[in-house]
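Obj.: predict assembly geometry.
Materials: sequence records (below).
Method: joint structure prediction, all chains together.
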Amino acid sequence: MQDIEIAELRKLTEFIQENFNYDFSNYAMSSFKRRIQRILELYKFPNVDSLVKRLREEPRFFHEFISEVTVNVTEMFRDPSFWREVRDHIIPNILLNNDTLSIWHAGCSSGEEVYSMAILLKEMGILEKSKIIATDIDKSILLKATSGVTPTKNMELNEKNYIRFQGTGNLNDYFKEENGKSILDKSLIANVSFREHDLVKGAVFNKFDLILCRNVMIYFNQQLQNKVLIKLHESLFKYGYLIIGSKESLIWCDIANKFIVVNNEEKIYKKIKD
Amino acid sequence: MDRSKVSQYKAIVIGGSAGSFQVITKLLAALPKDLDLPIIMCLHRLKHVRHGFVEALNIKSVKPLEEPNDKDMIKKGKIYLAPANYHLCVELGNSFSLSTEEMVNNSRPSIDITLETASYVYKNKLIGILLSGANKDGAWGMKKIKDRGGFTIVQDPADCMIDTMPSAALNLTEIDLVLKVDGLIKFFQNLNK
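Observations (raw structure tokens):
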């Protein structure tokens, strides 16, 4: 297959901007190009123009487009040392001055990080005091997240992570198995609010003690990361925590001086200025 | 045309898997200290072990390796290593980006992804090197490098602990040089002259 030209991608993002009001123009080029290439192969489009044509003729196809263009590879308790840090230091710190805990999973994908957090909170005995909002740009992945259903073949990795996290039980205690699927005990996410929200165009909608946005902004260019970080900062209470992926950093961004580094290894930052 | 002049290039990208660790260690120990091209390495590694690998490679290396953060600038003379459980991509504008996309050839980091994105940015100003390994990851990336005018080298299959990877590249595309470890070391030492 021919290489996709940058001009073609630009045409595509302009078309989407005008017709669907989503802005992909500041997604990181190499991964965005690869995602589009993948869609062309998956749907057997000979070129980007035919993808645009399909979107024009069948606007509903845009939902599928969103699902395929976004990356939904995730795991429970990814980076177990990070989850230990959250359990042993970050949450106890928040609870020093608060009776309740509000958490935003920004870009929650199929929900693995939300499940991990719910299990962690349950094991700490504070799930009932916690309010979790989980958002994603992709409607259909939110349905999956809400369902609590995970393919059992993924559970081996999740369990390994959980063991390294040193949870108090077995990960399997929180799931029941049915036909090759592992189904989460729904009481864990009964109070989680899953909502559609686009980090790029969406407005600030609430304030939180803790925001997790791990491995989401890596798909954006720096200019867009900067904008999103301003929103995330605004969405935090003063002295709230922002957590990004282990190989992301915010030391370069405009609002870096409004945060302090709490844990550089796990990329945990604390908001110290409004 | 003599393709061994450092001034013709903007970067070197190296892929390796099973059996490449010792080769890499030897290469890193013998690198000219003043080689001012960035070296970008994608080596298959345990997905869930974040620490220890870069430290192990640093023991013998003439200069320390770095696992870049997302959007870090690519600097001359630095040696970079793809971090565990992320694909390492080169972006236009000479920076890195990381990705947690699906595994490619059962691998994350995938050598194909690092090689392909590097060749897209550096075109004919890239040297691609593929070492010992037990799967075919990297072969397609080497082809992209060749198709875009870059210079391609594989470790001599006869010299490899496991030759699947360089052999796959030799079957898929034109390879400019097939070198044993000593030859690779000489290639690097001659680059600067």
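Conclusions so far: Chain B has one domain: 6-191.
To do: check interface contacts against the pulldown list.
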